[in-house]
Structure formats: structure tokens, C-alpha cells
Write a structure and sequence with these properties.
With 83 residues, the protein is mostly helical. The chain has one domain (4-82): Non-ribosomal Peptide Synthetase Peptidyl Carrier Protein, Chain A. The chain contains 5 helices and no strands. It has helices at residues 4-20, 32-36, 40-54, 60-63, 69-82. α1 packs across α3 (40-54). The longest helix has 17 residues, at 4-20.
């Protein structure tokens, strides 16, 4: 059985693939900027995609501390439970 975090990671991966236009593999420890070579503009595109998928708003100040796909997944999970 998959956990919410696993499903969230899968959606993060799909959003990154859509933004980059290439197949990628991510895990909780994947560093978004270093491992995936995502710049701030591409990250904003990923975030907008995820906001649509999960029907939530990700505050920019909270995004500033996100380094890994696991960090982003945890943030999304937290925002979903608050909503």
C-alpha cells in the first residue's frame, strides 16, 4: 500500500518531468536544484503545476527552505492537512 508521501512524490516527479520535458527518477533525498538541475524559474513552473494538482497554494516563504523532493512532499502533505 502506498502512503500519501509516495503518491505525492510521484506527482512531484510527474510535474518535474512535464517542466523539464524529460524522464526523471526521484526519491525523497533527491536534491531539486543540484541533482535535477532545476533553476528558480523551472521550480516555479513545477510549483504552479503542483498547486493545480493538489488544489492548494504553496507560500513562497515556505518554499525557500525546500531542498529535496522529500522536503517538498512533506510541505505539500502539511498544507493538505491544514486545508
Amino acid at each position: 500500500m502506498e502512503t500519501v508521501t509516495d503518491l505525492t512524490l510521484r506527482e512531484i516527479g510527474r510535474s518535474i518531468e512535464k517542466t523539464l520535458g524529460q524522464k526523471i527518477e526521484i526519491s525523497e533525498t533527491t536534491n531539486i536544484s543540484r541533482d535535477l538541475q532545476i533553476d528558480s524559474l523551472a521550480l516555479m513552473n513545477v510549483v504552479m503545476e503542483l498547486e493545480d494538482v493538489f488544489d492548494l497554494s504553496i507560500p513562497l516563504d515556505r518554499l525557500a527552505v525546500v531542498e529535496t523532493a522529500g522536503d517538498l512532499s512533506s510541505l505539500i502533505k502539511e498544507l493538505r492537512t491544514k486545508g
